[in-house]
Amino acid sequence: MKIPRTRRIRSRSEFLRVRKEGKSIRGKFLVLGFLADKSMSEPFKLGLITTKKIGGAVVRNRVRRRIRGIIHRTGERIRPGFRLVVIARFRAAEATSEQLEKEWKWMLHQSGLMQPATD
User: Backbone phi, then psi, for 57, in 5-degree steps?
Assistant: First the structure.
């Protein structure tokens, strides 16, 4: 479930670039910022933000684990060539995994980042 280091956004400047130059979609539990970057060699790069507004370290880590699990399950359907920043809102601490996944998929559809299912 660990996202490889090459697929993570780690520097502040990368986070700010996605937030400033990209677009965002707000949901009840999450905010998704995305920026097209066709020069990337990875399918997508991801950054997670969970602030202290959500709760203590245990709560923030639980929310991060849930989000990473959702991305692990749906990551192969994300269109390549994008930088994504997921910000957990304070309500994410009370949300179930199903609610978070439903909102994540909705945001991917709204943004046009989800590829059609290949069955």
Answer: -60, -40
Number of domains in the chain: 1
Q: 7: Cβ–Cβ under 8 A, 6 or more apart, which residues? A: 42, 43, 44, 45, 46
The 10s digit of each residue's pLDDT in 52-107 is: 999 999 999 999 999 999 998 888 888 888 999 999 999 999 999 999 999 999 99
**In this structure, are residues 67 and 60 in contact, taking their beta carbons and an 8 Å threshold?**
no
| Structure-block tokens of residue 114 | 């989800």
15 assigned to some structural domain: yes
**Residue 39 within a domain:** yes
Q: Measured between alpha carbons, how far is 108 from 104 in angstroms, rounded to an integer?
A: 6
**Is 116 part of a structural domain of the chain?**
no
**Separation CA 106–CA 99 (nearest Å):** 11
Task: Read off the pTM.
Answer: 0.88
Phi, psi of 89 (to 5 degrees): -85, 165
